Amino acid sequence: MLPIETYYATLDSGELEQATDMLAENVTFVMIVPTGARSGTGRAAMLDYLTGRPPVGRQHRLLRRAQDGDVQFAQGAVTEHGDVVTGYFVAAMHLDEHGLIDRYQVSFDPDHALVPWSGAEAPSTDPTGA
Q1: Which of 39, 42, 80, 88 is deepest in the core (most CB within 10 A)?
Q2: CB neighbours of residue 90 within 10 Å
Q3: 40-49 residue pLDDT tens
Q4: Residue 122: left if φ>0, alpha if ψ -120 to 50, beta else—which one?
Q5: Start and end of every SnoaL-like domain (predicted)?
Q6: 21 and 33 in contact (C-beta within 8 Å)?
Q7: Which pLDDT score is estimated for 28?
Q8: Starting from the edge strand earliest in sequence, which strands make up the sheet with 84-95, in order?
Q9: Distance of alpha carbon 77 from alpha carbon 120, whole angstroms
């Protein structure tokens, strides 16, 4: 399993602190969403971002993933409350020499599906199967 897959599986299981443990202490990130861009630096800033989101049973359904050296990519659907698709995302992360995520960028759009999700081919990344 690629680190990007492990990261999303950990997020989706609700273990937000464990997910941020996969980040370098000085990680830089940007989340580009319909309401604007949110950027930050550091594990604490990422944990603050993650804990500030509403608890809606969010799942990342990874439809594509790839790696080129120290950079990993994922594309997929975001679902909430089971299988209700709320949009699609494209993510990229750079791994440092210790395998920690030191740069992370994601864009999310509620309408544009690079690869649409049919509801069948991409199970939840949550190891509990939710």
Answers
A1: 88
A2: 18
A3: 999 999 999 9
A4: beta
A5: 4-103
A6: no
A7: 98
A8: 36-41, 23-33, 101-109, 84-95, 71-80, 59-68
A9: 12
Quickly count: other Cβ atoms within 10 Å of residue 12's Cβ.
Answer: 21
Domain extents for the chain?
3-109
What 8-state DSSP symbol labels residue 124? Answer: -
**SS3 assignment for 29-98:** EEEEECCEEEEEECHHHHHHHHHCCCCCCCEEEEEEEEEECCEEEEEEEEEECCCEEEEEEEEEEEECCC
| CATH number, domain 3-109 | 3.10.450.50
Rounded Cα distance, 36 and 109, in Å: 11
Burial class (CB in 10 A: 0-12, 13-18, 19+), 79: buried
Q: Which of 29-33, 81-85, 117-121 has the highest mean pLDDT?
A: 29-33
